[in-house]
Amino acid sequence: MTMRERPARVAIDAVLLEFDGVLADTRLVRREAMAGVLESEGIPLSDAAYREHCAGHSTADAVRALIAHHDLDMDETGLDLLTLRIDRAFSQHIAKGVMLVDGARETVERLASRVRLGVVSRLKREDVEFVLSLAGLEDAFRCVIGADDAYPRKPDPAPYFAALRRLDGRRPIPARGLVVTLEDSSDGIRAARAAHLRCIAVGDVPAHLAMEADAIIPSIAGVDVSSLEHLVAHAGENFA
What we know:
The chain is of the alpha/beta class. Helix content is 44%, strand content 12%. The chain has a 6-stranded parallel sheet, with helices on both faces. Helix 8 (186-194) links the parallel strand 4 (177-183) and strand 5. Helix 1 packs across helix 4.
């Protein structure tokens, strides 16, 4: 390959991460919180229904999808109250402790030493900040945008635009600086792309959805700025 053919070097200014599923493993506690509240209302939640309608979505969107799936009649007030009850149950669950994914702490510390970090999550901001505080990582992040901070929610780009405004307000993003996102769901990937950001899919993302991202990695363990720059520079080549 000649010098002319080599991909231009990219320089990352900031990395924005989904918290739920990328930094912390909240899948079990989210399902337990949702199942407990729904079943108290006589609404079953099977593993298949959870995977199809809840995983990767905000609580509000998951509730609406499940109510529609069961062909139930519930007005907006009822939907909002059910969402609130599930969010409260989830907060009670994580107060008992939520584990970061393997390698997350080390990756956050490596990235934070080189670039600005932010969280853009489908979870409530207070829940994210609580877990980060328990892990002693709250100072690593320049901003935390939760489901209660920006609307519409993912897959709309509004949450990412909110994070960019927060970062830009602290220090303008350079004209040639890249913002890279790490996402684990179709909603997150589409939100990042709609905000015109580079996106790396993380984890067990279906192939047809991962193809909407620039690359896919199994987890954030071992990730550093150089590896992210390589993935972005070689977008589309890393779908093994």
